[in-house]
Amino acid sequence: MALTRETKAELLARYQGDMADVSHAFLVGFSGITVGQVDDLRRRVRTAGGSYSVVKNRIARLAFEDSSLGALSDHLVGPTAIAYSDDDPVGLARTLTEFARDVPVIEFKAGLVDGQTISADAIQEIASMPGREALVAKLLFLLQSPIARFVRGLGDVTPQFLRTLNEIASEKEEG
Length: 175
Fold this sequence. Notes:
Layout: H1 5-19, E1 24-29, H2 35-47, E2 51-55, H3 57-64, E3 80-85, H4 89-102, E4 107-113, E5 116-119, H5 120-127, H6 132-174
Antiparallel strand pairs: 1-3, 1-4, 2-3, 4-5
Helix pairs in contact: 1-3, 4-5
């Protein structure tokens, strides 16, 4: 089905508006996927805090020229969809990787994480990383650990000091 100029202009404006300033995006090949599977993938990506859109490659190349996604233009070949988010690249990569495990026809093409282009293999490495919440929890534990040990050490010193004072006092009373 041929697109009219107006439809192409609308798509270009939508791509530029929706995806111009995204910090995290993953290009996915979806040849051979069913409509039900696409609906399931969209739902999963939305749950992960992202968006999923099938793109027209030529129009997407034009839209991405002056944006952070411009580096991904070389990978816009064949049926292509883009999953993007501004929040959590790990959660989005994990969602896509889990879906690709269930539906093996999904093919990772490339990605963009914090403005840096990554390969298809790196998407699966990112998916295996702990999420943001887990990393923050580990950091807080590491920051809290020395303080907790110091407080416990102070708690041990006080009873020992009091026992020593009691022994000195009892020696003076006897002597």
